[in-house]
Design goal:
By secondary structure, this protein is mainly α. It has one domain: Rhodopsin 7-helix transmembrane proteins (Rhopdopsin 7-helix transmembrane proteins, Up-down Bundle). Helix content is about 70%, strand content about 0%. The protein has helices at about 5-10, 15, 50-80, 90-105, 105-115, 125-155, 165-180, 180-190, 215-260, 270-305, 315-340, 340-350, 360-380, and strands at about 195-200, 205. A two-stranded antiparallel sheet has the order 1-2. Helix 3 packs antiparallel against helix 5 (about 105-115) and helix 6 packs antiparallel against helix 7 (about 165-180). The longest helix is centred in the middle third of the chain and has 47 residues, at about 215-260. The chain is elongated, with a radius of gyration of 25 Å. The N and C termini lie far apart (about 95 Å). Belongs to the G-protein coupled receptor 1 family. Opsin subfamily. This is Blue-sensitive rhodopsin. One of its GO terms (molecular function) is G protein-coupled receptor activity. One of its GO terms (cellular component) is membrane. It is a multi-pass membrane protein.
Length: about 375
């Protein structure tokens, strides 16, 4: 029988294992008390317990992600909510997405602690809290991305009368929160579905392994609700948006030829629209990150419910789970790289980041002056 440090030292024995020799090999779930064994699915008991170094490595990765998410999303919420140049209905969706991403960050301290103890601390209650944060932020973030795509499409395709008002923005934000609640509360209170540990048994998600028609129906419904429907909205609005952008750029090229000018942004309105197009590219980048981050996890859940579960080893399920967390950390930095007005505010207020961006309004004024100088020459 393996020597267990916790028998002599209590809970402090788990951190002491960091400097101890490897113990005898156990199966996953061996260190969970008998009264809580029920919430570990039988699938995971077929695998040997993961090496402690996998746990410590995962804790290190999540520590980095937590710091990046806290810094990035904190700055986004601060600057977008306090800057006059960014205080618009459209940017309310950016703040909403940052809030959802921050909720994802709340899981990370729990996982870091769980990794050092190599089990889910708090058992079922902690599992429900951990998975609820993940469900709320993941589903809400997906729908917020779809709303941002709708807003970008409306703003660019109908720049004069298509902009969303503040009241409409608040309604859409409320809708994103309502959309995220059903498949957060139903499994949390075991009305339909449940949350159980997965992978290394230090994280939790909804049950996609139980071989029961009710579980399969739940997995199919949450797959459509949280992934398929937002993806359909995103693809529809971005396809419409890119069609509008292509038409606009074609019109500018033709106009530039007629006026014999080099710049497509030949006046303030066109320069402003160019800024909107840059923002649309930011939104599309975030959409692309969302698809890349959540598609592997969607594959894992559908495989667990309807495919070959032998493919789902602890490591194979933890990698997609980490990918899903990464997107919440990358979103704010994508804005920092590409969003023109946000970059201008970063340069003024967080200069130590080293961001350089000319003021978009100054650029627009300069473009107007250039246009006025070039037009008489073209006419001559």
């Amino acid at each position: 029988m393996a020597y267990n440090l916790t028998e002599d030292f209590g809970p402090v024995g788990y951190p002491l294992k960091m400097v101890s020799s490897e113990t005898e090999e156990h199966m996953l779930g061996w260190n969970i008390p008998d009264e809580y064994q029920y919430f570990v699915h039988e699938h995971w008991r077929n695998y040997p317990a993961v090496s402690k170094y996998w746990h410590y490595g995962l804790a290190f990765i999540y520590t980095i992600l937590m710091c990046a998410s806290c810094l990035g999303n904190g700055i986004v919420i601060w600057i977008f909510s306090t800057s006059k140049s960014l205080r618009s209905p459209s940017n309310m969706f950016v703040i909403n997405l940052a809030i959802f991403d921050t909720l994802m960050m709340f899981e990370m301290p729990m996982l870091i602690a769980n990794s050092f103890y190599q089990k889910m601390l708090g058992y079922q209650l902690s599992c429900d809290i951990y998975a609820s944060f993940g469900a709320l932020s993941g589903i809400g973030g997906a729908m917020t991305n779809a709303i941002i795509a709708f807003d970008r499409y409306k703003t660019i395709s109908c720049p004069l009368d298509g902009r969303i008002t503040k009241v409409q923005a608040l309604i859409l934000i409320a809708f994103s929160w309502v959309w995220s609640l059903p498949f957060t509360l139903l499994p949390a209170f075991r009305v339909w579905g449940r949350f159980i540990p997965e992978g290394f048994l230090t994280t939790c998600s909804f049950d996609y392994l139980t071989d029961h028609p009710d579980t399969k129906l739940f997995v199919m419904c949450i797959f459509c609700w949280s992934y398929v429907i937002p993806i359909i909205f995103l693809c529809f609005f971005y396809s419409k948006l890119f069609s509008a952008v292509r038409m606009h750029e074609k019109m500018l090229r033709e106009q530039a030829k007629k006026m014999n000018v080099k710049s497509l942004a030949s006046n303030k309105d066109d320069a402003g629209k160019s800024v909107e197009i840059r923002i649309a590219k930011v939104a599309f980048t975030i959409f692309f990150l969302f698809v890349c981050s959540w598609t592997p996890y969607a594959f894992v859940t559908m495989t667990g419910a309807f495919g070959d579960r032998n493919m789902l080893s602890p490591v194979a399920t933890m990698v997609p789970a980490v990918c899903a967390k990464i997107v919440s950390c990358l979103d704010p930095w994508v804005y920092a790289i590409n969003h023109p007005r946000y970059r201008a505010e970063l340069e003024k207020r967080v200069s130590w980041l080293g961001v350089k961006e000319p003021n978009p309004d100054t650029v627009s004024t300069s473009s107007t002056a250039t246009s006025q100088t070039q037009n008489p020459q073209a006419e001559a």
